[in-house]
Design a protein that fits this description.
It contains 15 helices and 8 strands. The protein has a 3-stranded antiparallel β-sheet with strand order 1-3-6, with no helix packed on it. It has a 3-stranded antiparallel β-sheet with strand order 2-8-7.
Length: 413
């Protein structure tokens, strides 16, 4: 059954698959009052002011990204795009989350990337089994079965505990990363006012794990899809490069405020997220019985929103398979039903790292396109086959070439 309507009032919480292992108290898994408390503590970590503070960190890693591309272009290499944007994304995340510079760009085999990739590749048989036979979920939990690989969560727990143990009292005062933000508000005191509680040790670990790995995977994959769509639509890439050159003449330093005001860049990113949203679907649970368009949905019913299919519905998007950034132009975007475009979810449980991710993505894309253009090559798979497990992503790595731009001026003719 497909029910097309716009309501968010009665659908407050997403489905908890229960097989969450050590991440049972992550912000995207917790429910009711526990979720509200955790969300209230995590959200300020990605407020606009803090993102601006993190922008210099992103600049640092974007510069390293550009340096790493030079030899690949000089040698006319076929580039696996995830191999350049994945390390950039991971380095930004680890630096912002706990002030560690992994230098993954120069060490792509870093175990952080290996474990981050594994964390969101859910087992399809297990996923289907728990959905079809929920009666067995308590037994699976007792057996320690989880959708999230135990090896990856154990690896990250050890890393966080080591970093925390090495922080002296004096060094903590100068730290401004997400980990230190959580630690500063941590308390073990029992209080009647639950909203004032800080996060306990396990909750901190769960939030950092989910923020780091989810932030890495979704941002890196979006950049990969952006490179792919621009390579296949060179006229769009040229128009975007013209806006870049006008905004930052002569490959000038990318400034935060100017970056956020780039209209065509935003349209390109938004359209790419329409075609390739991070999650193929999202779930919500009814907190009370509700009747919509003559259909009664009982309390505690799971409602799945097929985001990937919704984004390609011809009733909502003319020529849905085409990459058309102008759908999101200032003149056209008001025609879009907000519930027809859900790359970051909607409502109180939407993605709390949305603004952070968009800044990181836009900065990397602008930095690369200031100097290079993406090109399709013989190794580029057209059309793409999508991976059936976990988040939305290609089944096989996307491969492209980069070409150095021959004309870089105020406007490229």
């Amino acid at each position: 059954m497909c029910l097309k309507t716009s309501t968010n009032k009665h659908f407050l919480f997403h489905k908890n698959f229960r097989l969450n292992g050590d991440l049972y108290d992550a912000v995207n898994v917790a429910e009711d009052d526990e979720w509200r408390r955790i969300r209230n503590h995590v959200t300020p970590s990605f407020a606009s002011g803090r993102i601006k503070e993190m922008f210099n960190i992103m600049q640092h890693h974007s510069n390293k990204l550009i340096l790493s591309l030079q030899s690949k272009v000089d040698n006319n290499e076929v580039i696996t795009i995830k191999d350049i944007f994945g390390p950039y994304s991971m380095d930004v995340m680890t630096s912002c989350v706990f002030s560690v510079d992994l230098d993954s760009i120069n060490d792509p085999s870093n175990p952080f990337i290996t474990h981050a990739t594994k964390l969101f590749r859910f087992s399809v048989p297990l996923f289907l089994f728990q959905g079809c036979f929920p009666v067995f979920i308590p037994l699976l939990n007792l057996l320690g079965v989880s959708l999230f690989p135990k090896s990856s969560t154990t690896f990250f727990r050890a890393v966080v505990e080591k970093i925390r143990a090495e922080r002296s009292e004096s060094s903590r005062k100068s730290m401004t990363d997400v980990l230190q933000y959580f630690l500063n508000y941590q308390t073990n005191k029992v209080s009647k006012e639950r909203e004032t509680w800080g996060l306990n040790d396990h909750e901190i670990l769960s939030q950092l794990t989910m923020l780091l790995f989810a932030g890495y995977e979704t941002s890196a994959t979006t950049l990969v899809f952006l490179a792919y769509t621009l390579a296949r639509n060179p006229e769009v890439m040229k128009q975007l490069q013209q806006e870049i050159d006008l905004t930052f003449p002569n490959k000038g330093l990318v400034q935060y405020d100017s970056l956020m005001q780039m209209e065509y860049l935003s349209s390109v990113v938004d359209e790419c997220l329409r075609l390739y949203p991070p999650a193929a679907r999202i779930e919500r649970m009814t907190k009370e019985t509700v009747r919509i368009k003559g259909i009664t949905i009982p309390k505690n019913m799971i409602v799945q929103v097929p985001v990937y299919a919704l984004h390609r519905d011809p009733d909502l998007w003319p020529d849905p398979e085409e990459f058309k950034p102008d759908r999101f132009s200032k003149e056209n975007k008001h025609n879009i039903n907000p519930y027809a475009y859900l790359p970051f979810g909607m409502g109180p449980r939407n993605c709390l790292g949305k603004r952070f991710a968009l800044v990181m993505i836009k900065l990397a894309l602008v930095k690369v396109l200031q100097t290079y253009s993406f090109l399709v090559c013989e190794e580029t798979e057209i059309p793409l086959k999508m991976h059936p497990e976990g988040l939305v992503g290609p089944l096989k790595p996307i491969k492209l070439k980069l070409k150095k731009r021959t004309v870089v001026s105020d406007v490229e003719n």
